[in-house]
Amino acid sequence: MHPLKKAARIAGAIYLSMVVTGPFSLIYVPSKLIVRGNAAATSDNILAHETMFRLSIMADLVGQVIFICLAIALYRLLSGVNKTWAGLMVAFVLVSAAVGFVNTLNDIAALTLFRGADFLTVFDKPQRDALGMLFIRLHSQGIFIDEMFWGLWLFPFGLLVFRSGFLPRLIGGWLMINCFGYVALSFIALLFPPYYETAFGLAQPVLFGELAIMLWLLIKGAKVPSLRAATA
Amino acid sequence: MNTIENSQRIAAKIAGVSGLLAFPIVVVGNYALLSPLVVPSNAAETARNIVAHQTQVRVALTCFLMYSASVVVLLTALYVILKPVDRILALLGALFRLVFALLWLLAPLNLLGALRLLGTASYLQAFEADRLQALARLRIAANFDDYYVGLPFFGLAATVCAYLWFKSNYIPKGLALFGVISSAWCVICGFLFLIFPHFNKVVNDYWFDSPMALFELVVSFWLLFKGLPPSTTVTIPHDTRDMRQIKTFSNQISP
Description:
heterodimer, A: mainly alpha, 10 helices, 84% helix, elongated, B: mainly alpha
């Protein structure tokens, strides 16, 4: 296989592996365990399904590691197009991953409070549950902050795809629009929280740019320049 | 440096813009929006201010987020400019600055935590109002600590970059030397303040980082308006191998 195609397929495969960890920790587990505004029910759910909750913490951490690997794989694929933009792409991913790592501490703190270790006996159970719930909510807030960097890295990525000549320009443009989608969502979550759900629903077509590039990298790889074009 | 690539010149403009944008963003966020709401030693009054001006707090934390993003753009641009001078040191400088940018991201998290604690969620009724206010004040106070944990990394990044500026001749040597001294001073102050919390009684907090911030601002102005020097500027090398290269170069250009 041509090295360019191989690099594209590797990046696509790494991207695909994020599809497993991301929705599990971001959508499935919260929807099963967290009851909005009800700390006691959330605490009971998490303690009853502690392994599932711990798996979601692990999935969060593994997801960040995969994200860094994806950035490196994409850097290998696209640094030939422009090193500066490729470097900026990696830098934004590193920030996003670091925020993600720190953010898992909120979930760990919540679990510690719900379990109620010996040193926490100075708090009664409703107070521990309330503090635990606070950390669960802070985890969500951390995701809103991370959302800005989920977006920002897509601008250099999209620009590199657009300029590459071996990946579709349409998807490159889509990724750049995808960048603004995430950044706008982050701003709305932080400045106008009541409108976030509506904005998230409306932004869906824009956010599928990532899915498009992942499938393209995985299925089509990269367009290898013909020998005539290369020697011309 | 005998040649300056076009990518370095573009990166210099980007560094200039991001450096100059970052400064007012963080100053407005911290001094104009957040500080007026915080009443020293009075958690209840601070809590009342925050509840009454929630949007102002949210704009401030968004400023911090944007500042962090600007620092990431700046560090990438500086890496591109300084990489030809010394690749490893340029990378080291970028990584130190990345740690600083990451620590800035804790500020929005702290503020969001304070807003949560002072919110109306029913599960928080397990605590009395004054306890929630004290916890919220603690989250805001954590911003101060996070900044001073990040400051030595900012100083280290600026010291490494200033040394590379000095070595490169891209900016005036005097300015670069001022950068090395002011940044190293900031690193020393940062560490001393962490070990001796009353160090700021000896040296005012503003003197820790203001000289370095001034250096970074001047460099940003320089890069944006003056840019990098023309490629004909040649640094005189020291070793004999380079002398041979100069002789070869002289032979090539002599008529």
